Amino acid sequence: MLRLQKLTKTYKTGDQALKAIDLEVPKGQVLALIGPSGAGKSTMIRCINRLVEPTSGAVILENTDLTKLGPGALRRARREMGMIFQEYALVERLTVMENVLSGRLGYVGFWRSFLRRYPQADVDEAFRLLDRVGLLHMADKRADELSGGQRQRVGICRALIQNPKLLLVDEPTASLDPKTSRQIMRLITELCRERGLAAIINIHDVALAQMFVPRIVGLRFGEIVFDGVPAALTAEKLTEIYGEEDWEATIEAVEDDEEVEAAQ
């Protein structure tokens, strides 16, 4: 469904953030990107939707090479890629409902969006999504009245109302407490299963990735150094990705958390 072929990003400083990355993500698969800061995780996500322009290589979504698209075709292609941001990227003065409906901007045209005259079908879908994430009762609240977890749920709804084929998720739990982080990761993975969505989740929290995501890709210095199931992420592999640490203790903690999660 998504293929990265020799994807490379070199900045003007000469720093190489991505080094000829080859990666395939099948339809419906949820994948977690892990690795230390500066490994290239956010750059990879942003190269896929060309918020950052790749230096070379190809990004093929289904049968379309996104790196070859002009501005108009790229805008249309971005409709099929929902983005969930670490800092939520909501318009603070707008209501929850208005922020969710802003995900339809690529479809309704400038004047209808400017006048906030969305088709009834879009409004109905926004209500359904808010109900699914437990925020229906907050549809008319301003975004600046929400907690971090609530804001992230609004961001999820905004991405899903695009009806995308691929979700790109950048550090969805970085600003959240542990309990809310679990709730958000559980929600994202459940929604992907329900909708048959592929997703790439950039996440620092290895334990959360292991608990909720079936495939993990580890980056180090812009290269893939691990690609496998959570159970294969051994202490030796974590050392290869992050460097020396007491990873055995981390693995034991993850196993304990998984037991608690399964019992809930």
Automatic annotation (TrEMBL):
GO cellular component, one term: membrane
Alphabetized UniProt keyword annotations: ATP-binding, Cell inner membrane, Cell membrane, Membrane, Nucleotide-binding, Translocase, Transport
Classification via CDD domains: ABC_PhnC_transporter
Residue ranges constituting the ABC transporter domain according to the UniProt record: 2-246
Keyword Cell membrane in annotation: yes
InterPro entries: AAA+_ATPase, ABC_transporter-like_ATP-bd, ABC_transporter-like_CS, ABC_transpr_PhnC, MetN_ABC_transporter-like, P-loop_NTPase
Lineage top rank: taxon: Bacteria
Record flagged with keyword Repeat: no
Entry-linked Gene3D superfamilies: P-loop containing nucleotide triphosphate hydrolases
Gene Ontology terms, MF aspect: ABC-type phosphonate transporter activity; ATP binding; ATP hydrolysis activity
NCBIfam families found in the cross-reference section: ABC_phnC
Name of the protein in its database record: Phosphonate ABC transporter ATP-binding protein
Organism listed in the record: Marivita cryptomonadis
Gene name as annotated: phnC
